[in-house]
């Protein structure tokens, strides 16, 4: 091999190594962000589960369990529980479940689940 070809090959490999290193660094940053989001979602999920358990316990303690919709609101107990969670500032829809609502924000998906077609 000529020295020129050897130098060109070395430069090409060096450039590819730098590009690969930059890609690995970018992936590392992306994985870090995803892991942080995952940890935050796990914590929020845990808090939501605790709140649901608390609401369920309170509801069971305050009134006998019924399967029929409440005469006052026309909603089943499960929809009433979803409404309480929603009113506390959390999404109950499948699209954004567990995410915080901004003050004054409303969600059409959540309200449809809570107040939508009662024939479901």
Automatic annotation (TrEMBL):
Pfam families according to UniProt: YabA
One Gene Ontology term of the molecular function aspect: metal ion binding
UniProtKB keywords: Cytoplasm, DNA replication, DNA replication inhibitor, Metal-binding, Zinc
GO biological process: DNA replication; negative regulation of DNA replication
Region (Disordered) location: 56-76
Record-given protein name: Initiation-control protein YabA
Species annotation: Lacticaseibacillus sharpeae JCM 1186 = DSM 20505
């Amino acid at each position: 091999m000529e020295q020129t070809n050897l130098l060109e090959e070395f430069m090409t490999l060096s450039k590819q190594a730098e590009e690969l290193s930059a890609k690995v660094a970018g992936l590392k940053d992306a994985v870090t962000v995803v892991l942080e989001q995952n940890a935050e979602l796990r914590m929020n999920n845990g808090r939501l589960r605790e709140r649901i358990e608390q609401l369920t316990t309170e509801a069971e303690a305050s009134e006998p369990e019924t399967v029929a919709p409440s005469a006052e609101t026309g909603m089943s107990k499960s929809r009433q529980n979803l409404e309480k969670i929603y009113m506390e500032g959390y999404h109950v829809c499948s699209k954004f479940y567990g995410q915080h609502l901004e003050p004054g924000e409303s969600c059409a998906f959540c309200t449809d689940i809570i107040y939508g077609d009662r024939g479901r």
